[in-house]
Amino acid sequence: MEQHSPALVDTDVSAFLESPPIILLSMLALTTATLTTNLAANVIAPANGFSNLAPKTISFVGGGLIAAFLGIAMMPWKLLSDFGTYIFGWLVGYSGFLGPIAGVLIADYYFVRGRVLNVGDLYSSSGEYTHTRGFNLKALIALFGGVLLALVGLFVDALRFLYDYAWFVGFGAALLLYLILMRSSAPRGSASPESGVNSSS
Question: Are 67 and 140 in contact (CB under 8 A)?
Fold first, then answer.
């Protein structure tokens, strides 16, 4: 008895992808998604940041324009032109700043303040979070200490391994340094039940 094998489905999509109309439609969809989602969402934080530097002179729109200008001035297309530069230059180097920021934030919220926030003082210019003219100098010291340790391997070959794990090194160094510096400040659960918020509740 003669048997026939089932017809195989052609899974070659190369011809489909080489179609100019399909390529044009795909690029239009990608461009629209980038402009309406990635760009719009990512510009909010820097726009607010620049506006907060000088609220009387820099509006939210002005902050967004400054962010856009700096984004173009950084020439990101050069970062994407080389795989090694993008991964080991930009992403790893950038993580050397993000790690220490996360370390300070987590150390302050979970260990120094015991997950208790004084919500009213968050919006006060003379509350417990004012510190020295609005800056927590101990947090800045821990931040820069973590960044320095994370990025020192970029300049000292013998310590290159620190740079290769920049996020983790910076995170751990900043967290520990901040805890040491803040041992005598802001005891755990210092906010009163009336004015504070405990995330565990």
Answer: no
* Cα 12 from Cα 72, distance rounded (Å): 39
**pTM (two decimals):** 0.69
Strand partners, 196: 118
Q: How many residues does the chain have?
A: 201
pLDDT tens-digit series, residues 108-133: 999 999 999 999 998 888 888 888 88
CA–CA distance, 23 with 28 (Å, rounded to integer): 9
Angle ∠(20,22,28) on CA atoms, nearest 5: 100
CB 109 within 8 A of CB 129: no
- 8 Å CB contact between 76 and 86: no
In degrees rounded to 5, what are phi and psi of residue 109? -75, -45
Each residue of 52-86: pLDDT tens digit?
A: 999 999 999 999 999 999 989 988 888 778 878 88
Of 150, 152, 140, 148, whose CA–CA distance to 170 is shortest? 150
Q: What one-letter code names the amino acid at 7?
A: A
CA distance 60 to 191: 32
196/186 Cα distance (integer angstroms): 13
Tell me which residue of 153, 52, 135 sits closest to 93, measured CA to CA.
Answer: 153
Q: How far apart are CA 194 and CA 117, in angstroms?
A: 11
198 closest CA partner among 100, 114, 122, 93: 114
